[in-house]
Amino acid sequence: MTKATEEKFMALLKEEASYGEAIGLMAWDMRTKAPKKGMDNRSEVLGVLAQKVHEIQTSDEMKSYIDELKGNTQDPVIQKSLQEAEETYNKTAKIPTSEYRAYVTLQSKAESMWGEAKENNDFESFRPYLEKLVEYNRKFADYWGYENHRYDALLNNYEPGMTVEILDQVFPKVRKALTNLLEAIKNAPNQPDPSVLEGHFPKEQQEKFSYEILERMGYDFEAGRLDETVHPFAIGLNHNDVRVTTKYDERDFRTAVFGTIHEGGHALYEQNIDPKLSFTPLATGTSMGIHESQSLFWENFISRSEAFWENHYQLFQSYAPDKFNDISLDEFYRAINEVKPSLIRIEADELTYCLHIMVRYELEKALIGGEIEVKDLPELWNSKMEDYLGVKPSNDSEGVLQDIHWSGGDFGYFPSYALGYMYAAQFENKMREDLDIESIIRQGDFEQIKKWLTNHIHQYGKMKKPLEILNEVTGEGLNADYLINYLTNKYKNIYQY
Amino acid sequence: MTKATEEKFMALLKEEASYGEAIGLMAWDMRTKAPKKGMDNRSEVLGVLAQKVHEIQTSDEMKSYIDELKGNTQDPVIQKSLQEAEETYNKTAKIPTSEYRAYVTLQSKAESMWGEAKENNDFESFRPYLEKLVEYNRKFADYWGYENHRYDALLNNYEPGMTVEILDQVFPKVRKALTNLLEAIKNAPNQPDPSVLEGHFPKEQQEKFSYEILERMGYDFEAGRLDETVHPFAIGLNHNDVRVTTKYDERDFRTAVFGTIHEGGHALYEQNIDPKLSFTPLATGTSMGIHESQSLFWENFISRSEAFWENHYQLFQSYAPDKFNDISLDEFYRAINEVKPSLIRIEADELTYCLHIMVRYELEKALIGGEIEVKDLPELWNSKMEDYLGVKPSNDSEGVLQDIHWSGGDFGYFPSYALGYMYAAQFENKMREDLDIESIIRQGDFEQIKKWLTNHIHQYGKMKKPLEILNEVTGEGLNADYLINYLTNKYKNIYQY
């Protein structure tokens, strides 16, 4: 009896995952290849399939399998799949259908209003939408429930197990360390010269280098591909079809080089998930934070390291404009690691990035907690930017309106980025005990690193929760010290303060 | 009451069409971009979605809407959609579910067995599969019913309204005319010299020319795109997303040039279907034959015409290798129109192509009718090829095994190709009354031609049946005289016999 139910449950999950792959392909297509006139039609098709997924997740059929199988199955994949299915069921079932529909409509409207507001630097036109989005998210958090802070319920969507309590212990410490570092760097005697990186770098050459680096990272091109897009992303349709996208800026090669490696890190995660998890909700990265730890590990700990460029600068030069023949490895390495507080998160360097996240975390936590209101955001944003980064937006487009996240109701997402940095540093510290990372990087054969990441992290997909992985791999919980030490050593060496 | 049912009916059709668009995109992706390792997973996803479409088409819900709305709705789009839905429902409902499933499994197995058999030139290994496919198709035809010939029931799947009776009046006449023409040509004094077309033509240049020609045809690149593939096709995901694929052979530009124009003809049809048919089963070409008439009209009547090259040869030369500067327009025009009986259908010229179809038509008609059996096919194939084309396969790979169609159970499909030629000639003859085609082609602005085709054919999608369109546009039924006249005049001029 249970056996038959297990099969029916897995068949239903397969149906859900199949829609998921179709939706994923359509999304990839819309952001890379699809002709623009077909977008309206495509959006409707996406809507139909998303609705189907939602129906399955909240169906009586799903509920009956969960009830029947819970505690009655031995297979660990089915057990974990049940757990995921139940969490999704409960989360969705707690929201009244009429509210859910109204919210979906609001999301898409708000996103397009945000686009206009950003373009016109007009926060007021977006404010009523953002207010409604906040209101819904407060309500949803209350439906879902939480122990200490309402914001925990939202955090949980992106980083299961993470809480305000943990973040409030860690983030202020990071903030303090980073602002101190920033101060030291500002007054340091040995400033890098980023102008050495300027110059026209043809797209075709950047593309070739991107392919070469992805190959070296161990990205499997027979199970993926690289395409161009406006806002780069990686997407796993299934573990054998994980696509990377990148953007080529002919005036600044860093966009493509570090962007490709970043997305390549995400892609390696998805490519190396255990195939036995296919067609279950477990066949993807376990959380936003752990995912980001993989992309940032490759982007920062590997590809912004001195060892990496000792090995790869020559290769880079072979694709780069001739001027780079006259730029020394040291000049190059220091230039790509320049620290410079700026207004825009996605352009931030490795050090100041987390400070951007702190600003957002504090604001959205207070917003969801009801301590502040949407109307207070622009001013608070600007003053926090000044406090933490020493820069102040001259308008809301380069301030509170810069990110798309809130317009889609994605509150609780931002902390994942900072968590990714910390996790990456924690993993790297642990990896150091098993591998001589620098010498591996210098040799340019990343196989051992890829294997380590697969063994410790990738293969599990969602079989383990993020903090479970962190604890099992590093023997401790969230700890910012590793990131702080890493950044301190790195920048001391570069800036020689 | 009816209003509400109409809405529910249209919503169900929209769901079906949405799966259709997702399936279409996945198919396009698999044939152009998808990494090979992801294929297995993708096939399963396709299976899930195809099953969903099948479930909708045969659902009690669908049946109830058909019963309730039939004769009770004023909206012509709903009326025609009902008719389509009913035909599909009946067709599918008449096949017992267990047989349908077994057949689907057989199809996919047979297709892969065919691939191996073709590669190994081993008809015997494929024979048992083909026998089962024939058996199923005979049974299905009996389930579906027919008036005169069992084969009519299968023809109807691809060319509604077409019958053995009509084909048997027309095809022999065509065959006789073409074999006579072929004889005359063989002995004609003025043979073209195809060697003038030889030489290395870089892919990038062929690609640029392909884009340019599609633009000129009026293909809308904002509602489509051009990609490379192994077996070229065009696919309409929706009327604003109709994609063309082509193949570049650097040793023979004709593959890409005429292939792109051919697929472009299909694409123009799909791009110009009335948008009000979107998300219904009517939003596609009305039949295989009419679709083929559009691709062949552009490929043959336009792009293999003297007028076309009078205008476009200079453009062609600007992309082509330098050697073409020394080849006269006349030499070029005659060379691209060389007639040469060959063994392989897809490589056939404009004149002999229909003879390849006759061979297949006669064999599958007899096969479905039970007059011959699968074991008789290789020998019959070879002797008919010799009779009609004067060439004889030296093995089954270049004979009876060459086409994929039968391995997928597609009996009744082949005649559409020959019908496409005849329809195209009939349409062209009619168009001539309204437009000065040669002078339009010479001017190179095809807008009027595109408009004529849209007004008379494209816009209707499946609102009209193929023979309905043929009759309304030309005032008569299938008539091979126009094709025969066109070919006779064309080749008399070229070969001067």
UniProtKB/TrEMBL annotation, chains A, B:
What Enzyme Commission number(s) appear in the record?
A: 3.4.17.19
Residues annotated for Zn(2+) binding in this entry = 262, 266, 292
Q: Which reaction does it catalyse?
A: Release of a C-terminal amino acid with broad specificity, except for -Pro
Q: What Pfam family does this protein match (any one)?
A: Peptidase_M32
Any one GO MF term held by the record is: zinc ion binding
The GO biological-process annotations, alphabetized, read as:
proteolysis
Q: Where is the active site?
A: 263
InterPro entries the UniProt entry points to: Peptidase_M32_Taq (IPR001333)
Q: What class of enzyme is it?
A: hydrolase
The UniProt note on the cofactor reads as follows: Binds 1 zinc ion per subunit.
Matches recorded under SUPFAM superfamilies: Metalloproteases ('zincins'), catalytic domain
Q: Which UniProt keywords apply?
A: Carboxypeptidase, Hydrolase, Metal-binding, Metalloprotease, Protease, Zinc
Q: Tell me its family.
A: Belongs to the peptidase M32 family.
Role noted for this protein: Broad specificity carboxypetidase that releases amino acids sequentially from the C-terminus, including neutral, aromatic, polar and basic residues.
Protein name in the entry: Metal-dependent carboxypeptidase
